[in-house]
Amino acid sequence: MIARLVLCSVLLSAFTTAISHAQTTSSPAKPMHSGPQIPQQLPSTSQFQLHSQYTQQDYLIQVAQPSTPAPAQGYAVLYVLDGNATFDAARAMGASFAQGSARMGLVPTVIVSIGYPNTALFNVAARAKDYTPQPKHPIERNPEREYGGAQQFAQFIEQELKPKIQSDFHINPQQQSLYGHSFGGLFVLEQFFQEQQHFQRYIAASPSLWFDQYALTYSQQQWLQKSTKAHQTPAMLMITYGSSELRTDQDLAQKQQNEKQFIETFQQLPTQGLQFWSFVHPQEQHVSNLYASLPKALYLAACQDVNSCQNILGKPHAVATPTLSTGQ
User: Which pTM does this prediction carry?
Assistant: First the structure.
């Protein structure tokens, strides 16, 4: 697993370096055809550390701003968890999409990654606390870790980080997206169920549905009951997973059924106020699905409206549901 993470980091670093080099080279190759050449520009980036009074944790915030001016209503914004591992890849992908943005119906999108200082890829202990809700059952797996800080982490994003981003950039408050993987995917889904008004678009990659004896299924049922009694803010939700994510649980069959039912519950909902997509990425493992899901996360964050989102991602529909991972 460590070797795969290192390999992913090296490949992403090389990819980003190659793009930067192509941009800054003073003597580009002679074009094969005449006419003006439009250089592909990487978004301008900035980073800063932000201390939270809610979590008592320092965060490394990295921001990629599109090279194009903000639309009248403001930039779309995508908040990405596990920022140390995801920022370079998301930034490069965002730049590559920019050339065809008008044709695809995409709006310029600010990418905000949330990571941790002095972290290479993943701060395992910090993310375990920040991304998980308070457990209602005894935690047997990894008992040395502290869980249950999701509420405070959500307050950090809403009360401290968002105001900072909105003061520095012209952001469209009606096109804000949140992306997370594994425990981060668990956090995304909890926010969707509990605080849906904070974002309009949610992307959960390989969410850790197993956490706290599948307590998230209870959150889903509570959300369903509320949604039938009161008008819900229109939202878009995407869940992705890899076809080769491994499972080692003894009660595998029951867990597979729980996860399958969780996905199918969304697939069977009426489309009132909710657009739902689910995707399986062939041959992707748990960690690699993080990177395989980023392009779709960027598309969902940037598409202008329901029609343009469906033109890119397809109409929301039921798909075969393979087993999700027990990863974190």
Answer: 0.83
Q: pLDDT for 199-214, tens place per residue?
A: 999 999 999 998 998 8
Structure tokens at 98: 């920019």
**What interhelical angle do 183-194 and 211-229 show, nearest 10?**
30
What phi, psi does 80 have (nearest 5°)? Answer: -120, 125
Cβ contacts of residue 196 below 8 Å, gap of 6+? 232, 233, 235
> Cα 193 to the chain's mean position, in Å?
16
Backbone angles phi, psi at 284, to 5 degrees: -85, 140
**Contact 60/116 with Cβ under 8 angstroms?**
yes
Q: Which amino acid, residue 116? A: Y
Rounded CA separation 78/96 (Å): 16
What's the per-residue H, E or C state across 256-311? Answer: HHHHHHHHHHHHCCCCCCEEEEEEEECCCCCCHHHHHHHHHHHHHHHECCHHHHHH
Please state, as a whole number, how many other Cβ atoms lie within 10 Å of the Cβ of residue 28. Answer: 10
